[in-house]
Specification:
By secondary structure, this protein is α+β, with helices and mostly antiparallel strands. It contains eleven helices and 15 strands.
Length: 414
Amino acid sequence: MARLHPPDGDTVAVVSAAGGFVGPFTALVVATLVVALVGGLVASAILRRRDLGTPADRATFATLHTASLAAPHLREGLTPQGASRAARHLRTLLGTSAIALADATATLAWEGLGAHHAPDAREHAEEVLRTGRTVVLGPRDITCDDDECPIRSAVISPITGEDRVVGALLAYGADTSAGTVRATDEVARWVSTQVELAELDRSRARASEAELRALRAQISPHFIYNSLAAIASFVRTDPVRARELLLEFADFTRYAFRRGGEFTTFADELKNIERYLVLEQARFGDRLEVRMLVAPEVLPVAVPFLAVQPLVENAVRHGLEAKTGTGHITLGAQDAGAEAYIWVEDDGAGSDPEVIRRVLAGESDSDSVGLGNVDARLRQVFGEEYGLVVETAPGAGTKVSFRVPKFSPGVRAT
């Protein structure tokens, strides 16, 4: 069919494939049918684009999506609250009449039909919790006075963590098939992975807290002694200055020994560094000159708590105490695209690069304040590529720098 556009007038004539003309009304009907046909083809194409593929593809997507809904709750560990929230999604994965989660002491959650069996779930899981092997129970093991109750069998699979059985997943139904056994085992293994990840998160948090306590203990002895000695020297000669320094010292220690999150903003870290430097300048006087080059864009960036101050303290203690004359320290922070670049540089005595290498590798008992600790925490939080970079040589001063992502999952200043 060909469409003709006459040279004048608005009427459009349509020529049939046979070569004859049809009237305007008929043409309108035909045009409407053509539009409907084209619209249908477009809609069909859109639906095809939105199609997730074969039935197997759709089933895979549904399974992964359901697992992703359960995962955040299991990352709390095998707790009653997390188990209750995850149970609905685990039952969807298995497609059974009911499921339960139990640990060594109690039934943590029940989801589905036959909730009156919930108190018995822990007892049903007894053998699995003891042996770590999957067990199938039948009607002789699961009794019920309700003739209409669909709970007549169960597949019970172990949930493990740190190479030990920490709980059990119980899939209940009217009967049991080999497919149900395999599916329950696989889901239990997936739950075990989430529980182990939760334990890793807790271990990481405990390790981080231990490192932070070690860093606080490392900072406190010499710094507290030196600060109090400096304050005492002004008590008689300049009481007002002594009072100001005492307030700075109180604010510094309050921040350093605070109970709070693992991260802080660079702005807060910078404030505490300024307090520290006020106290050190009271001790060194004109021998210590400090310059700060900080881009405002970097101030809100989250950094590990007490990640920068130990580097400044190290510059003062090891860079300037052994230096004659005036020592200079530069603290810098600049915007580097998706990252912030932070450095501390001094023109002090410097160090043997091999000594620093051993400190960062944990192979030295050197008292370089916090270098190894800060390096380990940065790598632990952001990845191996985010550790400290130390540039030094005897008599050439030292520059310590590191990068942090401006945004990183799980990193939030508090």
